[in-house]
Amino acid sequence: MTGPDNKNILVIGPPDSGKQTAIKNINGKNANILSASYGRAIINNTKNYLFSLKGDDGFKSFEDVLLSFENGEPADGVIILLDNSRGVMETDIEVMDMILSRNIPHIVFSNKQDLNNASLDEYFEESIIIPTIAKNGIGVQDGFKLLLKLIGQKKQHVNVRKSEYKYRKAFNSKKVHNKFREAEKLEKLKDILEESDNHDICKLRMFMHPIELEKMVKTLENHGFSNMTVAETKYIDNKNASMETYRCSQYDVQLKMKTEIIMILRKDDVQYVLKAVRSIKSDDIDDNILITPIERVLRVRTLEEGEEAID
Predict the structure, then answer these.
(1) Are 215 and 146 in the same domain?
(2) Same structural domain, 108 and 210
(3) What pLDDT score was predicted for residue 261?
(4) Which of 42, 150, 202, 212 has the most other CB atoms within 10 Å of its CB?
(5) pLDDT value at 7 more than 70
(6) Residue whose C-alpha is closest to residue 61's, from 71, 43, 49
(7) Is the pLDDT of residue 170 over 60?
(8) Model pLDDT, residue 257
(9) By residue range, what is the domain housing residue 245?
(10) For the residues of 33-75, what is the DSSP string, one character each?
């Protein structure tokens, strides 16, 4: 799908790292997405990096791949997707250096976390790393949304970001840079942890019979809500205790099973959640919905806060 406001997103990684699986789980209605595998060949003692676009024959340079979109514009952002069970290779680090040298907004997907959840921070200190399990869609859409935010930020701070990169390259001192980063983070955390009277964000809790869960989730997703936590819970029902048999003995069962959906959202959006729930309301969905104010929301990985942290 192409359009004047669509972002060009390039997904790259070693062969069989899960690129196509991740793309299938990205809701990229306003994005043009291409994927390419990469490798390295040494010719005449010179390292050559080869990129192969999905569906194309032959190999391209990194510059050519960045310009392979149908709209003729270069890639706005890059997702580098790595198979965490395979580990990080020298080629992966060198490809990342190529991305950094061009000041391209990017995200690292540390994929196949179900096979190996080791951290990649030591290899990519300058990058945001998103743990993912692409086959289950875990982390993929959140990482994609974060990349779109980085692209938007770059448009506003191009000169600053370029000067920061030149500073890192000129001094080449990770210790100095890490101390600067940690001091900056601590300073921001002090501001974040101050008391606030701003309660524009709230937590919403809904309870229902487990049989209603799938219908409820689909209804909320159709109304634009996808960030949900689902938990199993039990409640005491003194009025309607039932009898269950276990090993030839009968027992009173007062603890009944229910499913709980927890959502963190803007106060203004609560009315739309209620509208969605009313459209499928039944006796198996509780009448009571618990709504409590949230003082602050902080995304630890990026230090985004407030509404930006719940998108």
Answers:
(1) no
(2) no
(3) 94
(4) 212
(5) yes
(6) 49
(7) no
(8) 81
(9) 201-294
(10) EEEEEEEEEEETTEEEEEEEETT--S-B-HHHHHT-STTSPPP
